[in-house]
């Protein structure tokens, strides 16, 4: 059950989450101390226990909360009701929505990378709570287009390839900005990116449909 302390907006709590995100990303779970986090947040160290219970609770909050409630969850039923092209556009727009948060999402990615190197168990929770539902939503669209009752290994490969295009802009955000800043410099640019990726994804899906039907692929010798 969500406590009153975590359900109500609170400036001190928000500052603690932001400070923890940066310091855990920079130093890791073990090296970042609750005292330096509270000092960076301008909060009393006792506030950590009040809002999060302990350091582990603060870490979970810093790991998950900056991304907010991802629209992919709320829109899963909607994806299934739309034509494939429209569903892909919406799914990828939802997937890329956190990129609009700019600097904060860079810290989120750094913390995720550190979690992979120095695991605390938070990454598995992220897979179960966020990544798996997104993957399954895309699988549903692919199964519908390919006429499959159940996703096979190639369906999973295709889903990973499609979402991988979008993931690349999270993982390689600094590189993308260095090479062509306007790719990600506004909400409108990120929406255009989602639109383009949806078009690429649609081509990939149609190519897979032709492959399954035994038809020659464009450009094949």
Question: What would the keywords be for this entry?
Answer:
221 residues; mainly alpha; Tetracycline Repressor, domain 2; Arc Repressor Mutant, subunit A; 2 domains; 13 helices
Can you describe what's shown?
- With 221 residues, the chain is mainly alpha-helical.
- The protein folds into two domains: 4-64, Homeodomain-like (Arc Repressor Mutant, subunit A, Orthogonal Bundle); 68-212, Tetracycline Repressor, domain 2.
- It is built from 13 helices and no strands.
- The protein has helices at residues 4-7, 11-27, 34-41, 46-52, 55-64, 71-74, 76-81, 84-96, 103-117, 122-146, 153-171, 173-179, 187-212.
- The chain is elongated and about 65 Å long.
Summarize the structure.
The chain has helices at residues 4-7, 11-27, 34-41, 46-52, 55-64, 71-74, 76-81, 84-96, 103-117, 122-146, 153-171, 173-179, 187-212. With 221 residues, it is mostly helical.
Q: Indicate how many domains the architecture comprises.
A: 2
Structural class: mainly alpha
Strand segment tally: 0
What is the residue-averaged pLDDT? 89
Distance between the termini: 60 Å
What percent of the residues sit in helical stretches (DSSP H or I)? over 70%
What is the CA-atom radius of gyration, in angstroms?
20 Å
Major pleated sheet: none
Q: What is the fold-level CATH name, i.e. the topology of the largest domain?
A: Tetracycline Repressor, domain 2
Helical region count? 13
Poorly predicted runs are 1-9
Cα shape? elongated
Q: What is the N-to-C succession of helices and strands?
A: HHHHHHHHHHHHH
Strand content: under 5%
CATH architectural designation of the largest domain: Orthogonal Bundle
CATH superfamily assignment of the largest domain? Tetracycline Repressor, domain 2
**CATH top level assignment of the largest domain:** Mainly Alpha
